[in-house]
Amino acid sequence: MKREVVVVGAGVVGVALAHTLSERDGVTVTVLDQCVQEPLGSTAFAPGFVGVYNDVPVLTRLARDSAAVYDAAGVGFRRSGGLEVATSDAGVAEIESRVESARAKGLRAELLGPADLPASVTAFVDTSNVLAAGHFPDDGSADVQVLTLGLKTQAIERGARFLPSQRVTGINPHGTGAVVTTESGDRFAADDIVLAGGIWGPTLASLVGLDLPLFPVAHPYVYDSAATVWDDGPFVRWPEHHVYSRIHGDRLGIGSYDHRPVPVEQGELASGAGLQWSTDFGPVIESAQRLLRPEVRFAPESRVNGVFAMTPDNLPFLGRLTESESVWMAQAIWVTHAAGAAVMLTEAMFEGSELPGELRVSRFEGTSSDVLDERAMRLYRDIYANDSQ
Ligand SMILES: Cc1cc2nc3c(=O)[nH]c(=O)nc-3n(C[C@H](O)[C@H](O)[C@H](O)COP(=O)(O)OP(=O)(O)OC[C@H]3O[C@@H](n4cnc5c(N)ncnc54)[C@H](O)[C@@H]3O)c2cc1C
């Protein structure tokens, strides 16, 4: 008898799960998504930084393993390297310490002076205030939709099936009779159910009686028009300014965390993770662009107000629900960590390996939702400052 695994959600996490699960013999994988055609979750909007070194060891492990899967898949991912730019003495000290820590973990990292920056970077970064930069050659840049489609195609070739227009509205998690039901009235029997609903995580968790402290937030990212021929170079971040930027083929993109967090309710997600542009983000992006060379600053041709998931400690939820033998969760996971998380969860499901305690779904039990919400929002601005992702 084959083991039936039903994954809810076909964003990068659900797809990475299908990719890993379908490598195993004796497993049938079905991925259900509420979207009619291509999924419209956070995955559709991510500009694709994959930073391998993280001050939190479990995130370094997940990123390293993810990048290895993306390398092997051979589509939509390249080891572009990542560059962290410092414009103050304190910023230089922080980067020096991160370079040292990354090296201690066996990753490649070096400190560059302003004169050492590659031409692909000085083409758009204003170097007049740059004191130093940390270069992390193992980091990568993903074209996230291309990468996700590549992983999905490989999973389908190995037998996984993906069913669109299947909004999950019921989960009966009990023992051998575990079953997932959808709005259209279909029923899917499962030995294991994996919730990979991203920002819709709280709604999915409520189907199994769980109050999940996962908090969606809105985030601005903009693209220039396709007017310039750029050289591909590293993904650039300015941790002191909470700003990041990259070249997307013939377009320049820039995003910023330097604003008050904007929480998003479940009821606002009916059309997906892409919201209407907020005029509040205009000045945020304008200010971010001061870090670019004056001649490349641009009036955005396309603007993303995209929603992603925050947690009270900026770590994913990865593991089995304590309330149930058959329901697992892989939510609040970045592209950076998705494939590594899928490998880790699959090993726990099939080999019984222990999952890291710090990712346990129930780790915030006993703390009020308001406190957790406030903690999560406090962490937003520092996502690319303390490298919590
Ligand atoms: C603007 C922006 C910038 C970002 N930048 C980066 C970055 O540079 N690097 C990085 O690593 N990450 C980045 N992220 C975060 C990253 O995009 C997400 O963490 C990641 O894509 C989440 O993937 P997911 O599969 O969990 O969720 P999603 O992509 O949201 O997929 C979840 C899927 O579940 C489906 N679903 C939900 N509920 C149900 C249901 N009841 N029934 C059926 N289907 C359901 C949804 O339709 C959706 O398709 C960014 C995100 C945004 C928005």
Write a structural description.
By secondary structure, the chain is an alpha+beta fold. It has a domain at 3-44 and 145-213 and 313-368: FAD/NAD(P)-binding domain. It has helices spanning 12-21, 57-73, 89-104, 119-122, 144-157, 201-206, 281-288, 335-351, 369-380, and strands spanning 3-8, 27-32, 49-50, 77-78, 82-86, 110-112, 132-136, 140-142, 161-163, 168-172, 179-182, 187-189, 192-195, 215-223, 235-238, 243-248, 251-256, 262-263, 274-275, 302-310, 317-320, 327-331. Strands 5, 6, 7, 14, 15, 16, 17, 18, 19 and 20 form a ten-stranded mixed β-sheet that branches. It has a six-stranded mixed β-sheet with strand order 9-2-1-13-22-21. A hairpin with a 4-residue loop joins strand 15 and strand 16 (243-248). Helix 1 packs parallel to helix 5, helix 1 runs parallel beside helix 8 and helix 2 packs across helix 8. The longest helix has 17 residues, at 57-73. The two termini are 40 Å apart. The mean pLDDT is 95. The structure holds flavin-adenine dinucleotide. Flavin-adenine dinucleotide is lined by residues 8-14, 32-35, 39, 41-43, 45-49, 166-168, 196-200, 204, 219, 221, 273, 304, 306-308, 333-336.
Low-pLDDT runs? none
In CATH, the architecture of the domain at 3-44 and 145-213 and 313-368 is 3-Layer(bba) Sandwich
Indicate the proportion of strand residues. 25-35%
Span between termini: 40 Å
Number of helical stretches of at least 4 residues: 9
Using the CA coordinates, give the radius of gyration.
Answer: 21 Å
Task: Kindly report the CATH topology of the domain at 3-44 and 145-213 and 313-368.
Answer: FAD/NAD(P)-binding domain
Question: Quick one: how many beta strands?
Answer: 22
Helix content: 25-40%
